């Protein structure tokens, strides 16, 4: 796997690069601002970008804007965003395109090497990895959504899907059978109006509907 890292903190940038190297993941470019990120993506066409939301010069949303532009130029480009805080608007905007291969984690998750590497590989493979703190805050949004029709258990299952868990992992987390989870997932697809298609693609679409609810 070939990765581009965009992070203005030298310590975090080099730390992430070394962590990935220990897992056999190559960093082809490590930059500190959005413009350099776009240049690096154009030059290297990486398998994944790991991007800080706030970078120079204004330290507001440069990383996010650069990520959205990179995905516009190269549709399907996997992007894993790292942020110091839960910033709902940024998370929703990044996910609004409906494409797969997106993640949003708090920087503190990098300390859990296994969790972080799992998220890196999952997003690079076209899945999603959304921090549970982001999910919690998005759940309190008041906008009406098809998600409102889900039962509490179905919302719980969908929340775990948003974190990137498989059906088996969800069953383990909820201490229920795989069959029970499959039934809940089927109900979720039906209530969200997701017609039968590629299973993994429907999971991503369900998660995106949930996060924009």
UniProtKB/TrEMBL annotation:
Keywords: DNA-binding, Phosphoprotein, Transcription, Transcription regulation. The keyword Transcription regulation applies. Residues 143-213 form the HTH luxR-type domain. SUPFAM superfamilies: CheY-like. Residues 2-122 form the Response regulatory domain. The modification 4-aspartylphosphate is found at residue 52. GO terms for molecular function: DNA binding. This is DNA-binding response regulator, NarL/FixJ family, contains REC and HTH domains. It comes from Lentzea jiangxiensis.
